[in-house]
Write a structure and sequence with these properties.
About 40% of the residues lie in helices and about 25% in strands. By secondary structure, the chain is α/β, with parallel strands linked by helices. The protein has two domains: about 120 residues, Vaccinia Virus protein VP39 (Rossmann fold), CATH 3.40.50.150; about 40 residues, no CATH class. It starts with a helix and ends with a strand.
Length: about 160
Amino acid sequence: MREAKRQQPAANAFAADFTLEMMRVGKQHGSFNASVADALALPFVDGMFDAAVSGFFVRNVTSVDESLREQFRVLKSGGRIVILGTTRPQRNLFTPLIWIHMHMVIPLVGGLLAGEKSAYTYLPNSTENFLTAEALAERMSAVGFKRVGFRRRMFGTIAIHWGEK
């Protein structure tokens, strides 16, 4: 959100999250409107936003399709969606190293730094059980997004998806 405001100072940025505490923490780090909201039933009128941007969120909803439909609904015609999230990496030469990093290094470091090892065990498990980048792009298209694409990063463990209403 800070980057959006940096690039477009006149932008009316609006944050939404399911948990009030996340909104409180976010408000400490920036100046923006905020709402506690369910991603499957957003409290915004149709066609309200020019863009919908999410980070590490889609794999945590109970219905990816419902979430995508809601984001599509609140976007203006020509509005854009950008989704940053973890994704199941494609098998390659680095697959064993990626597995070790995700299942051993991340939980160990997360446990040491945050004292919350279970949260960092959830990350690799939810990533491996989530849609592939290709499947998420297909779901976005099925909802109605056009010019859908994605790019993998971080040895294929992160994907940036985009589309247009």
